[in-house]
Amino acid sequence: MAKKVLVIPDVHGETFWKEPVQRYIDQVDRIIFLGDYLDPYPDEGREYTPQGVFDNLMDIIDLKRANIDKVVLLKGNHDQHYASEMFRDLACGSRCDTINWNIYNAVFVRNQDFFKLVHLEEINGIPYLFSHAGLTLNWINKVNSSIWKLADNKISLADPDIIERINALDDNDEGQELLSIIGRYRNVIGPKSGSVLWADIEEHAFPDAPKVYGLNRVFQVVGHSRLKEEFDKIEFDNLALIDSEQCFIIDEEIEKKIVPFSIQIIISPINNFQISQALWDDFSCLQSFL
Q1: Is 167 helix (H, G, I), strand (E, B) or coil?
Q2: Domain coordinates of the chain in residue numbers?
Q3: Which helix (H) or strand (E) segment is 31 a member of?
Q4: What's the DSSP call for residue 275?
Q5: Nearest to 128 by CA among 238, 286, 6, 245
Q6: 3-state class of 241 per DSSP?
Q7: Residue 200 is inside which H or E element, if any?
Q8: Going by CATH, does the domain composed of 4-132+218-282 fall within 3.10.310.10?
Q9: Which residue from 288, 143, 160, 280 is spatially nearest to 218, judged by alpha carbons?
Q10: Which DSSP letter does residue 144 get?
Q11: How many CB atoms are located within 10 Å of the residue 44 CB?
């Protein structure tokens, strides 16, 4: 049977994920959240309450608990600054709820085994690599030179052992320092690219992924860099950015690598947006970051 994967980008207190999950949880093989469950945007004209944001997070955790193998919960920078006090002190994101920090910290600590940084899954013969902000050559090189100290030809992002090493960065202080790296797009004196929690889309290599570390072998699916309302996604040969407040589907029965989800029909290719180089050059599809 053809594999189907439901992918949910940055949540930020929103509930757009609920109806697709409730309707189709039994029809998909995997449900993958890309992180950033908390810290709603203040400029949406919507009403949020701390209790509502908290309950939404707990609903997601309960979904994971009830579907332990089917649901994958990845962390974003807006989760990590609650999960790790060290990360918060080094690289706290905007909109951090300092009043309720202890409550959220307790939730992430208590449920730490439910969350990870990256997820690798083969779909239709392609190694799909899911994370919040994506993996870049420069940051992997920094991790390797700081901790792993492996020969470059021993590192492939299509290798489950390397993915396990990346997830293990969440387990110690040295790893938190590397996860806290903010790239040059947000920090003009920073490194060329941020971590798997912080890399902005402008910090990835386009249009062609480099061969080093097997970046050209995987297809990355990321959020973090928020798109304007008129765009569903931007996509290159080796990466799709889908931070557009809607769910996406990957289906082995269709040709496209990832398409927007519609609750009317489980596969919906409408508004499937392939970015033009001219549009990419002026980043006009991206919202200002916060």
Answers
A1: helix
A2: 4-132+218-282
A3: strand 30-33
A4: P
A5: 238
A6: strand
A7: none
A8: no
A9: 160
A10: I
A11: 12
| HSE, side-chain direction, 13 A CA sphere, residue 146 | 17
The residue whose two tokens read 């002026």 is 282
Residue 74 has which token pair?
A: 């990845």
The pLDDT tens digits of the residues spanning 75-97 come to: 999 999 999 999 999 998 889 99
- pLDDT per position as a tens digit, 223-265: 999 998 888 999 999 999 999 999 999 999 988 999 998 744 4
| Reported pTM | 0.91
What does the buried/exposed string (b/e) look like for 250-273 if buried means 16 or more CB atoms within 10 Å of the residue's CB? bbeeeeebbbbbbeeebebeeeeb
| 81 neighbors 98 (Cβ within 8 angstroms) | no
Neighbouring C-beta atoms of residue 164, cutoff 10 Å: 12
Spatial separation of the C-alpha atoms in residues 133 and 217, rounded to whole Å: 18
Q: Give the C-alpha separation, 33 to 223, whole Å.
A: 10
How far apart are alpha carbons 196 and 176 in whole angstroms? 11
pLDDT at 285: 53
Rg, the chain, Cα only: 18
Tell me how far apart the 2 most distant CA atoms of the chain are, in Å: 51
Q: Which own/partner contact pairs does 140-147 have at CB distance under 8 Å and 24+ positions apart?
A: 140/213, 141/213, 142/178, 142/181, 142/191, 143/169, 143/178, 146/174, 146/178, 147/174, 147/175, 147/178
